[in-house]
Write a structure and sequence with these properties.
Blueprint: H1 2-26, H2 30-50, H3 53-56, H4 61-70, H5 74-93, H6 95-116, H7 119-135, E1 141-144, E2 150-153, H8 154-171, H9 173-178, H10 194-225, E3 229-230, H11 239-245, E4 250-251, H12 267-297, H13 314-322
Antiparallel strand pairs: 1-2, 3-4
Helix pairs in contact: 1-2, 2-5, 4-11, 5-6, 6-12, 7-8, 8-12, 10-12
Length: 323
């Protein structure tokens, strides 16, 4: 037993020494910082899984602060980048695996988008109900539910319509991209060859889509948590400073509306912003994989496994393909 404890302590000390050496290596410059963090990523991933309670046990204020800190940290970026490199490497070796990743990621985008697209119908029905109740019955409040009713002022229901619109914009963006319904500004793309188009798509997904989404995530993550807890976390705070703040940490969910009786759950818009960036990142990876596979396999694989909606009208289908 003592030998096992000594052995465990030896490996723990060796791991800590390795991380300490990598930390010193990362201070040598930009390249050392990049490769040092990338080498440290597997250790951080395993450590986070083994010690999940240190960042997922939200009954502990320090654990919650660690979750907030690492949610937009360099450590998380390099862990995810390391996973991406492994998955991509396996996909390059086995294209069937990469196609499976494409189908899963596009399936997520399609599933989420098709579900939340119904928010458009809810928005229309709710607006009709508000107008009808105001103009015909001249009520000031609307109740919803059976047994336990949810009652709010008419102005609350009117402002809440913006939430449906935000759901459609944020949660259907990746779905729209999969379906080819995004707006295109085409100056050179149409005249490119098939393989050049696919290479351009690969470049655009990595250089434009993912960096823009990551930048939005970095701002949106702390923007979200500043409206959920106090003391307010900041992107410039170190982990030690956030752990010090955790001594006074408490939930303080934003419930302030723009009008006295208006919609008061605006923190949901911050949640949607973060969710939107995650959906875009996943779709950018799927688009990169699809573009690579279509370029490698040739024109016959264009649109392979693509789950596109059918409009049921040949003319409308032709117009959609043109655009």
């Amino acid at each position: 037993m003592e030998d096992e404890i000594a052995c465990s302590g030896f490996f723990r000390a060796s791991a800590e020494d390795t991380v300490s050496c990598l930390d010193k290596f990362e201070m040598g410059g930009p390249l050392q910082y990049f490769f040092g963090n990338l080498l440290e990523a597997p250790f951080n991933l395993i450590y986070a899984i083994i010690h999940w309670d240190m960042w997922l046990d939200w009954s502990n204020s320090e654990s919650l602060m660690r979750f907030i800190y690492y949610g937009a940290s360099a450590e998380l970026f390099f862990v995810l980048f390391f996973i991406f490199l492994i998955v991509t490497g396996v996909g390059f070796a086995r294209n069937t695996f990469m196609w499976a990743c494409v189908r899963v990621l596009e399936g997520i985008a399609n599933g989420v988008g098709r579900f939340f697209a119904w928010a458009g119908l809810l928005m229309v029905l709710q607006q009709i109900t508000i107008i009808f109740m105001q103009r015909v019955f001249a009520v000031s409040e609307i109740s919803l539910g059976f047994g336990m009713t949810f009652t709010k002022d008419v102005s609350w229901w009117s402002e809440e319509l913006k939430l449906y619109n935000a759901m459609i914009v944020c949660l259907c963006a990746a779905y729209t991209f999969v379906q080819g319904g995004q707006v295109r500004v085409d100056l050179l793309y149409a005249n490119m060859s098939y393989r050049t188009k696919r290479a351009f798509d690969m470049f655009g997904s990595m250089v434009f889509m993912i960096p823009a989404a990551l930048l939005t995530w970095l701002y949106g993550w702390f923007f979200l948590w500043r409206h959920l807890v106090v003391p307010n976390p900041s992107a410039s705070d170190t982990l030690d400073r956030l752990l010090a703040k955790s001594r006074a940490l408490r939930w303080n969910v934003e419930t302030i509306g723009f009008s006295p009786n208006g919609f008061n759950a605006y923190f949901l818009f911050k949640v949607l912003l973060v969710t939107f960036t995650l959906m875009v990142i996943l779709q950018a990876i799927a688009f990169f994989y699809r573009s690579y596979l279509e370029r490698k396999e040739g024109p016959d694989s264009e649109g392979k496994y693509l789950d596109k909606d059918q409009l049921g009208d040949p003319t409308a289908e032709l117009v959609a393909d043109i655009h």
